[in-house]
Amino acid sequence: MPAIPAWPPASMPRLFVEQPLSADLPLRLEGAAANYLGNVMRLGPGNGVNLFDDLTGDWAARVEAVGKRAIELTVADHLRPREAVPDLWLVAAPIKKGRIDLVAEKACELGVDRLVPVITRRTVVEKPKLERLRAHMIEAAEQCGRNALPSLAEPVGLAVLLKDWPTDRALFFADETGGEPALEAMRAHRGPAAILIGPEGGFDPAEREAVRALASARGIGLGPRTLRAETAAIAAITLWMAAAGDW
């Protein structure tokens, strides 16, 4: 007698879906998702798929039928609940296409809870394509096992951001002119936090003074070398996660 395959399978393709999932839910996927599962992964009836919805966590679903343009599944087992996420925002000035996509992708992989595009005087890209940034975060979550997507805020001007800043959230300001060592500053703080990263040309002097005037702001340094904006974002997130004990 052939062995009965284990369920759920140890290895399954993983996809994000936009609707809430629950046991025994029939699901029809079309478009890119159906093409990926049916034509790229070549799944057939009985195969398993790992689905997550950013609400209830990860679920194992069973393929019921594969068509030319759609794939039918049934949601089966709840694999794990939605993960707890460290309370860290990344507030970053949009930079050139490709580089801002990288920032969104790595912010998701590293565990950021919210991405806030901030518009400054030297910002090159004032209208980032949020749909594309969200797509990059979804793809990163699918690949790295994260099941809680970062929220993505509408772009906001720096002056408005500072005016409405929540008083209980520390703002670690990556200042190219210098600041206290980032890891030391982050270890000294417990509670909600955000990291502020400027554009390619940096903040102008007036903006820097406005940030430093905010009671919640703390200027930090990221070492002796001048970092590109995307590198500074990734480095600062990594340091905060290490200080917070997430790593």
CATH class of the largest domain: Alpha Beta
Give the averaged pLDDT, no decimals.
Answer: 93
Q: How far apart lie the N and C ends?
A: 46 Å
Count of extended strands = 13
Please, could you describe this protein's structure?
- This protein has 247 residues and is an alpha/beta fold.
- The protein has two domains: 14-80, Hypothetical PUA domain-like, domain 1 (Ribosomal Protein L25, Chain P, Beta Barrel), CATH 2.40.240; 88-244, Alpha/beta knot, CATH 3.40.1280.10.
- It contains seven helices and 13 strands.
- The protein has helices at 31-40, 99-110, 130-144, 158-163, 182-187, 205-213, 229-244, and strands spanning 14-16, 26-30, 48-52, 58-66, 70-80, 88-92, 114-119, 151-152, 156-157, 170-174, 180-181, 193-197, 217-221.
- Strands 6, 7, 8, 9, 10, 11, 12 and 13 form an eight-stranded parallel β-sheet that branches. Strands 1-3-4-5-2 form a five-stranded mixed β-sheet.
- A hairpin with a 3-residue loop joins strand 4 (58-66) and strand 5 (70-80).
- Helix 2 packs across helix 3 and helix 2 packs parallel to helix 7 (229-244).
- It is elongated.
Give a quick summary of the entry:
The chain has 247 residues and is of the alpha/beta class. It is built from seven helices and 13 strands.
Chain-wise SSE layout:
Layout (H helix, E strand, L loop, with lengths): L13 E3 L9 E5 H10 L7 E5 L5 E9 L3 E11 L7 E5 L6 H12 L3 E6 L10 H15 L6 E2 L3 E2 H6 L6 E5 L5 E2 H6 L5 E5 L7 H9 L3 E5 L7 H16 L3
Parallel strand pairs: 1-3, 6-7, 6-12, 7-8, 7-9, 10-12, 10-13, 11-13
Antiparallel strand pairs: 2-5, 3-4, 4-5
Helix pairs in contact: 2-3, 2-7
